[in-house]
Amino acid sequence: MKNKVLVTGGTGYIGSHTVVELQNEGFDVFIIDNLANSDKKVLDGIKSITGIKPVFEEFDLCDYDRLHAFFTLNPDIESIIHFAAYKAVGESVEKPVLYYYNNIVSLLNLMKCMQEFRIPSMVFSSSCTVYGQPDVLPVSEDSPVQEAVSPYGNTKQIGEEIIRDTIHAHQDLKAISLRYFNPIGAHPSAYIGELPIGEPENLVPYITQTASGIRDELRVFGDDYDTPDGSCIRDYLHVVDLAQAHVVALKRLLEGQNKDNYEVFNLGTGKGVSVFAVIESFERVSGKKLKYRVVDRRAGDIEKIWADPSLANKEMGWATRYSLDDAMKSAWDWELNYRNMK
After folding, report:
1. In what helix (H) or strand (E) does residue 294 lie, and over which residues does it extend?
2. Cβ distance 229 to 274 under 8 Å?
3. What's the CA angle centered on 219, arms 146 and 212, to 5 degrees?
4. At a CB cut-off of 8 Å and minimum separation 6, what does 270 contact?
5. Of the listed 152, 225, 236, 338, which one is catalytic?
6. Residues 228-258: pLDDT tens digits?
7. With contact defined as beta carbons under 8 Å apart, do 120 and 3 qualify?
8. What are the pLDDT digits (tens) for 183-210?
9. Which of 133, 155, 170, 247 could form a disulfide with 103 if both were Cys (CB 3.0 to 4.6 A apart)?
């Protein structure tokens, strides 16, 4: 009998790629998503890749009654991967109440249902933003969690605290928080990829939309940071590598391989890459010259961060396989395929 797993936010960017990897591994997947920042057509892309269209429910996790009714009808769900959250750093600075309400209430509702319906395992989509601007690089799991520089980052810190405290009080529950760095790229099939609603907040979809003529130009937020070329540095990992890490983490919980009821892992390549280097990679793999302009720094952005992923490498046996060029090529292939399908 297949393991049944609920993926919240499963039509989103990382969620949809994780659903593909779960179905490829034989899991029976249920998705809840309110489609606030995704498109239902993603389900067709998932089916094109895996041959299976996952069960889909459209509603908001902040609606506790709907969520409770869902678990009442599906009492044999054994685990949850929780992606559903608003995630734009800049927008969270402008709309903090929206972010705190959505990201925290949805998690609290899930935790209440986990207890009532005896769902023992959760993988939580956390973020490197919990580290703020680290004093020491690369960042390990032992690095101090600093004051968040954005409401979004703070919701991830609070989310981890909620999960940790709940598990401490309920020893029959266990969870893994995956603190990932900057996912980019698309599935190699080009059937699914990063498709934000409206103007992209993330770098790579803005690059591909600019190259395809959807946007007039890319804005680079600052070239006066204390970095080799003046632009921000991040640890960019391929979304398929990231999706596979969620499957590995879930199996770790289901098979009882976890060493503690609550564990945390950093997911990244271990390499810091600047914004200008990402642009160069795109130009290299696409053969297109990108139009961009340097503008003022953006509120909520940190200067530089990259991961020490050695704990995830050692404990979970997970490591990234795809290069920056691989990721940028897959993002461009997805952009071209999506525009052709419209």
Report:
1. strand 292-295
2. yes
3. 120
4. 138, 235, 306, 307, 308, 309, 310
5. 152
6. 999 999 999 999 999 999 999 999 999 999 9
7. no
8. 999 999 999 999 888 888 899 999 999 9
9. 155
The reply to whether 152 belongs to the active site is yes
Domain edges within the chain: 4-184+237-268
Q: Count Cβ neighbours within 10 Å for each residue of 236-247 and write b for 16 or more, e otherwise.
A: bbbbbbbbbbbb
Helix (H, G, I), strand (E, B) or coil at 9: coil
Buried b (16+ CB within 10 A) or exposed e, 123-158: bbbbbbbbbbebeebbbebebebeebbbbbbbbbbb
Task: Give how far Cα 82 sits from Cα of 10, 46, 147, 241, 312, Å.
Answer: 9, 18, 23, 18, 19
Give dist(CA 86, CA 12) in Å, integer.
11
Q: What is the pTM for the complete model shown?
A: 0.96
